[in-house]
Amino acid sequence: MDVTKRKFTPSSLILLIIFIIISVFALFPLFAIALGSLKPSTEILRFGLNLKIQPELLSFKNYSFIFNGGTDYFSWYKNSILITITSTILCLLFTSMVGYGLAVYQFKFKNLIFGLVLIVMMIPVEIIMLPLYKLTMGLGLMDTLLGAFLPFVVAPIPIFFFRQYASGLPKDLLDAARVDGCTEVGIYFRIMMPLMAPAFSSMAILQALHSWNNFLWPLIVLRSSEKLTLPIGLSTLLTPYGNNYDVLIAGSVMAIFPVLILYIFFQRYFIEGMTAGGVKG
Amino acid sequence: MANSNLDLHKNGVVAPTKKKKLRDLLYSQTVAPYFFVFPFLITFVIFFAYPVVTTIVMSFQEVLPGQVSFVGLENYKELWNPTFLKAIKNSSVYTILTLAILIPIPLVLAVFLNSKVMFAKNLFRSITFIPALTSVVVAGIIFRLIFGQQEGALLNSILGIIGVEPRAWLNHAGTSMFTLVVLATWKWMGINILYFLAGLQNIPKELYESAEVDGASTWRKFLHITLPLLKPISIYVFTISIYGGFSMFAESYMLYGSNKSPNNIGLTIVGYLYSKGIEQNNLGFGSAIGITLLVITLVITFIQLKFFGMFKKEEQ
Fold first, then answer.
1. What is the ipTM of this complex?
2. Model-level pTM?
């Protein structure tokens, strides 16, 4: 953006040093666990996680152990992928509809409904965990993948974001489509939804990342080992005896890996999506 | 509400044939908005309003399998116990410390990143954001092992170089809080920098230019232009940090590998709720904990809005 030529000044150097230190702080824990995943788990148990590199100890044994099966790791991975994809698609479909409805139409309860969205946004979800747990039991959804995401699929932040985005869409397109004989729902799916593509990308990232990393609710709902998601499964490996540290460490690295790869390619949408709450119209 | 309105509309339409009626419905601009907001309305009722009401009611009940009885304020009276007070204290200290670190430092770093003399802005922005991508679970695993009590664990081995004795970081109240705060700083620093960067980009450049004409120093520009104009985004970051702080649970759960920590030094309000409500299946008492959390967050939000609001008046 900035086209003016910049000169390298002493203050540039100070700032660079500050940010190099910050970057090291941001990256070394990830480096430490990546390095740890190449060490025998007995080593981790005895010495903890550190940055010592002893080439003779490094190997991909922990990874080949996971890939040889015998653990539920890939069930967790599969469950996480399944929940992430399903909940993201449903979340985007529903919240975009709601956001669009609130932005484009004038109707009686519009402000009331938007107020309700804001209330949902303002109340910490932890408060309704127990009644939701009771409700989920009543609905027979305990220990099911559906139960692990259904209550939170129509999330308030994406509604808010889509509403902001849809308010900026050209209204004359609506009238043109109506004149052409398009139904109201048709207008949304054929004309407006494609126009909201950038908002969809950001919200897809936000929702997918949330779903991939979600902890408390799946911890409550999912019980049997083969039904767990990746974060919950990994958390069960954290025992004081450290007998599962090979799967734990290598498994953690494999849990971050897809996110990092996607981040490299879709950085812009990650940043837009994850800071969406701060966008003010 | 929506349904009655819908019915009313249907009845109001004078439709010669069924087909015509359906056609009208598809094209009606009165019905359409309710169709669009329907997914929210139904999930709001089932998964929000109903649970909120249930939890308020349950907080006055003793909920046993197959037997529910009203116990008045008994659950709330029971809340007054050392364990819950410790949980409140832990959550409050954690919130205050994360606020004290995760607002001023990211703000200043964002100003640095945005400055004219800064190089490789995008690179550093991308790198500082990476920790936000990791799940609390993975972050917890990493920090548990870095802050391990073994002599060879990263932190102990670094401190060993300068002659500090290895310690069991997670076994003592002060150091375990320190670990939690370092974890939070690591995970949220980048995202808060981004919030403030977004705020900075909304500040009109002309303001700085005219200040420069007037001969204002960098410090004065920061104090009189940047800070006041970053107020809206700061309030936002402040608010989400308070909510995040008081509802912290997973971080502590992961550092200790379960909801149990020595002497409850890692117990948080949500941890107590989880322990009573889920682990011990005491839904009534658990609900009372939840309502307390709600009251705490609402009171703080109210005070904060009031404070920032008064601030605003003073300026004018």
1. 0.90
2. 0.89
